[in-house]
Amino acid sequence: MTPDAGAVRAQVPAADQTLRILRHLAGRAAPVAASALARELGIPRSTVYHLLATLEEHGFVVHLAQERRWGLGTSAFELAGGYTRQEPLARVGRPLIAALADRIGESAHLAVMSGRDVLYIVEERAARRPALVTDVGVRLPAHLTATGRAMLAALPHAQVRALYPDAAAFTDRTGRGPRRPRELREALREVRAAGVATEDGEVTPGFRSVAAVVRDHADWPAAAVAITWEDERSVDPQNAVLGTARLMRLRLGYGSG
């Protein structure tokens, strides 16, 4: 017999309240004050503060002290990434990524965020194209990749600050790419203005990438679609990548793009 949902919530109120807080934060475009959480969710303010402190300890939320607001932390992104790595996202994405690779004649891939990394969950290599480091299961620093920048640019500024608080958060592969929060902010402004993210030799010398974000129902970055090619070749995949990202969002039931 299935337990009554109301009875279960009454037996474990802290679990119910914690999940409601996380869901509420996930549905907001920017961090939220604790007082607003208490008011909008009908949870006592003291309880909200206790739950937020526990969630912060485990990395599921971050406290922006100067703004007196709370937002999702890196553990929440890792949890979301664990879901998106499962079969539904890969199953929907695989035929679209294969069609993109066939259309452009270069390698295409699909990635999700995992903390400060991107994790590649689908790769389709076009015929006679070289192997890339972006194989399925590979993690790369998000700030250096086109897929990572496409997703970072779709996050609220406060979330990006939480992920990259100082220069110590930045790793290097080829001597190129942002190394400080200010440089990353400028790179992400360019992504928002262009509608796509680019990368030129920052992951592997001699290779370039273009990527577009796939947003979920709350307008958060669920994944990113990209094409990678040798920079000596003349390729213009921007429209195809954007079209694939829009189609994938539609197929996932998140909207029309």
Which properties best describe this structure?
single chain; 257 residues; alpha+beta; Arc Repressor Mutant, subunit A; Beta-Lactamase; 2 domains; six-stranded antiparallel sheet; two-stranded antiparallel sheet; 10 helices; 8 strands; globular; Tscrpt_reg_IclR_C; transcription; DNA-binding; HTH_MetabolicPath_Reg; IclR family transcriptional regulator
Characterize this entry briefly.
This protein is α+β, with helices and mostly antiparallel strands.
Describe the structure.
Residues 75-257 form the IclR-ED domain. The radius of gyration is 20 Å and the shape is globular. By secondary structure, the protein is an alpha+beta fold. A hairpin with a 6-residue loop joins strand 6 and strand 7. Helix 2 (13-26) crosses helix 4, helix 3 packs across helix 4 (45-57) and helix 6 packs antiparallel against helix 10 (238-251). It has two domains: 5-72, Orthogonal Bundle (Arc Repressor Mutant, subunit A), CATH 1.10.10.10; 78-251, Beta-Lactamase (2-Layer Sandwich). The N and C termini lie far apart (42 Å). It has ten helices and eight strands. The model has no long low-confidence stretch (mean pLDDT 86).
